[in-house]
Amino acid sequence: MAARTRYAPDRGLTVRMTATMFLLGLVFVVFVGLVIGIMTAAHASAASIILVAVIFGGGSAFISLFYSDKIALAAAGARIVSPQEAPSLHGIVDRLCALADMDKPRVAIAPTQMPNAFATGRNSKNSVLCVTQGMLQREFLTQEELEGVLAHELSHVAHKDVQVMTYASLLAIVAGLLVRFAFYSEIFGGGRRGGGNNGQAALLIPLIMLASAVVYAISFLLIRLLSRYRELAADRSGALLTQNPSALMSALTKVSQGMNRIPTQDLRSAETLNAFYFAPAMKLTRGGGGGGGTSLSALFSTHPSLDKRIEQLTKIQRELGQVGPDPRGLR
Amino acid sequence: MGFLDTLFGRTKPVQPKLDDLFGLPSAAVQLEAATGFKPTGSGSVSFRAPEGKPFADIQKEVLELLDMDNGKPGGGLPVEVTKDTYGYTWLVSNHMSDEMDALVTDLHAVNSALVDGGFGPQLLCTLVAFRDDSQRRLSLVYLYKRGTFYPFAPLGGNNRDNTLELQVKGVLGDDLRMEQDLTRWFPVWGAPGL
To answer: Which of A142, A140, A74, A131 lies closest to A106 in space, CA to CA?
Structure first.
């Protein structure tokens, strides 16, 4: 279909995301190769540790994928609301879903004063879009700004971000478990091992531990990087859906500022949900002091900095203001 | 969405389907024969106006185009522009109740002008209003992205007459492509032209 479109795809973002995913895949392949190598060289105890870690890690990842909506709703203390209870919120979501031609997610409200929103669920049929009470206050966000936020969250659903991030973090979960298991088996399993294998095993277990720790660290950073790219992608799709990047920009600014005003006690309970949120509720305090602090916290954070997000939206704003369709956007 | 789009977090803007709108005149005849609902002659197009000047220019062109044949037979009244509380713009075209063809032509003119300008993904829905002898209100809503129709019958307050809606779905099933997924029948309370 050669329909006329006004959107040039963001190739840079696609390239960066591909590179990140390629590196994650590479780490995965190297790790699997290492594990197979260790398993062929090793005896039962190392192999069984690895097997147990894979089963536990995989199992917990799939449970969290399948119950992501219920887990997130319970953690946020949110409640599904009917169209009668929140007519205007449902009205916005209805219209955005009709514009984007997607299934309507369930809509929930969390009784938190901190303004934020998240979407979760493994596919569009099972997804939930949740906003906090603080987000719905009329004096805080205008209708247009709220719509921008909801479009961002709906884009996460459309991009299947919960699935993508679960698969991406599978490796990190397994590697993290391996470190722990290897550590415990070192402490508790040492006495039970039979004579001939003893020297070999004493060498192998720390080896697994070391490899897993390195893999965990690398994949952790890559996952955070991927998460930031997914946020930018959702910002972009959300802005293109509402055709109103300015409203999303001002919502982002307001939400980030609102976050800083609120005492930290409230925020602590939000930590587990951080990756799904519209703007991060937790700030890394470790790197706050020194000069290298900002770049360090940027490396670890699940969300891109406000400046980055605003910069991207400004670019979209310029594209929309251009007279006539951009010829590069013709496909 | 394709696999690659999911992988890269892209959404392609969805292009509207316009052709099914032309089934409306014959469906209106069928509707009147089966339920007694007559077209009121008004219909509206709802879209999301993007920020920036290019769109404002196109909207002005469309209005001029539609108002050109005012006063001529079948030309109808001037087109009204309203913005609803959700930030969507509605162009309302008013005709006589027996001028269904002219109304559909008007609506199609708006659609194709927007699509030609590259604003197709901004189209939300089109709405054609009907009324029966006891002044019950009914409208047929056309979802551009799905290419399907669904009935919307508002009652007082925020209630809708589901019995009537399902009856209409049954009556028009052969004439129009009705939306089978009931969760997509979103209400348009207080829509202009209803």
So the answer is: A131
